[in-house]
Amino acid sequence: MARMGGRRHLKRLAAPEFWPVLRKEAKWAVKPSPGPHPASRSLPLLIVVREILGYAKTYREARRIIAEGHILVDGVVRRDYKFPVGYMDVIEIRTSGEYFRVVPVPTKVMALIPISREEASYKLCRIENKTTVKGGRIQLNLHDGRNIVLPPEESRKFTTLSTVKISVPSNELLDYYSLDKGVLVIVLGGINVGRVGKIISISEGVRHYRKLVAIEDVRGGTFYTSLDKVFVIGISKPEITLPIVPGLGGKQ
User: Cβ distance 230 to 203 under 8 Å?
Assistant: First the structure.
């Protein structure tokens, strides 16, 4: 994939391979604005409205729908048609009352899964980093650009690459799922993107995020990926709706 940073425009041929756009239909594609997700792991809101949801047929129609405030992302109205939408984001269509969550799926990489209004009130976020801020408090840096500041004594149990459950748009911390053996995870990238399973083992390594992880899928098969590509979605059952996961209890 060609370099996407440093330029105002993006050609369709240089867009990420998983974008659902016809490469030779036109020359240019919508380039995502700087935001909570990197361009390589996100979709511009205009493409979501036009190509995925099918609410518009043309560029102008999609821009108008977004500008009029019909689309909410994580409970906040987004009027920027270039706004990047990424993993675990909750999309609400105000006029129709529909709710969707962005989840990784095999081959397509990203898909919008219909969810209930109750489930749309929260999202899962992965802890990418922990930093110390003013007053000695600990800040959790989440995968979607959010930050949660906690007292030092409360932050000890939180580890990087683990998952927190937060309410949207209030950002209230609801639950915590530690990255450990036996937890349920979904793969964010690579050839195993979208696969769901339980962690069997985590090998030791010099760099934490590059450790090798063995995962057992719902059919009993085992596959491997690196630790930075796994996302904890629950302990014994998934906390989010998944496309089709036979053999797993909970939300499906």
Answer: no
Residues 211, 180: contact at Cβ < 8 Å? Answer: no
Confidence of residue 58 (pLDDT cuts 50, 70, 90): very high
CB 146 within 8 A of CB 216: no
CA distances (Å), origin 174, targets 27, 125, 130, 137, 193: 45, 11, 18, 19, 27
* Burial of 220 from C-beta contacts in 10 A (0-12 / 13-18 / 19+): exposed
Mean pLDDT, rounded, of the chain: 90
Going by their DSSP bridges, the two strands 98-105 and 90-93 should be labelled as antiparallel
Contact 119, 101 (CB under 8 A): yes
Asked if omega into 169 is within 30° of 0 (cis), the reply is yes
Q: How far apart are CA 76 and CA 248, in angstroms?
A: 32
**pTM of the complete model beyond 0.85:** yes
Q: Which residue has the higher pLDDT, 7 or 243?
A: 243
